[in-house]
Amino acid sequence: MDAIRLTDVSRIFRAGMMETAALEEINIKVEEGEFLSVMGPSGCGKSTLLNVMGLLDRPTSGTVEIMGETVKSLSDKALAAFRNEKLGFVFQSFHLINTLNILDNAMLPLLYRRMSESKRRQAAYEVLERMEMTHRLHHYPHQLSGGQCQRVAIARAIVGNPEIILADEPTGNLDSKMGAEVMSILHKLNVEDKRTIVMVTHNELQARETTRTIRMFDGHQVG
Ligand code: ADP
Ligand code: ADP
Description:
Layout: E1 2-15, E2 18-31, E3 35-39, H1 46-53, E4 61-66, E5 69-70, H2 76-86, E6 87-91, H3 102-107, H4 117-130, H5 146-158, E7 164-168, H6 176-191, E8 196-200, H7 204-208, E9 212-217, E10 220-221
Helix pairs in contact: 4-5, 5-6
The structure holds adenosine-5'-diphosphate (2 copies).
């Protein structure tokens, strides 16, 4: 089965008379178990592509299928539940909640699930243990280094056991040592846990280590 399938997907942003085609007639299949990297210059549509794949944004036209499900037919509420179950997100700037401690941040995706508080806490503890962050459970994001913040964000991305992880420049705000650490975690999630990963990156070396790279330019896939 394809994990992700985009068919003739376009995303046009309109502001008054201005129209920007962030994506134009994109056709992409991501197979289960792939680690796909997405490259291209700033403004070419990479984030829009990831947002559409992650059901954070609906395309202007075209079809998005995730794990065999055509998502167009889902209501907003069903879409949110589907996204929560199937997809985990990692962002360049971490997107942690500054007023919540590390444990509560990692528990966030489970709030949508029918689970007791103690089960949620246990699940969050376990993913933080994998990320070697249990010594910081009651710290807040501003008390952590960037690398530690990203490890917490990855814990949050995987706590609900999603099949697909979408990462938008996950090492963009990290120095090379911490970036390498985060990449090694993503590779483990791909190889050992069989997660499908799509990652936007500007780093050719990182892209070379993924299973496939697509290149974008001006809303089009060019390679
Ligand atoms: P990248 O991630 O490759 O830098 P983006 O997907 O962020 O590119 O943007 C692609 C194009 O779409 C750019 O021209 C950008 O200005 C435009 N764009 C992105 N988001 C919006 C938005 N919310 N409203 C208007 N234009 C947008
Ligand atoms: P990592 O383990 O991700 O490589 P570092 O070695 O950079 O993290 O950080 C070591 C310690 O210093 C951590 O316990 C972290 O909480 C703390 N630390 C790092 N950067 C900052 C910062 N900007 N503000 C406060 N504490 C920090």
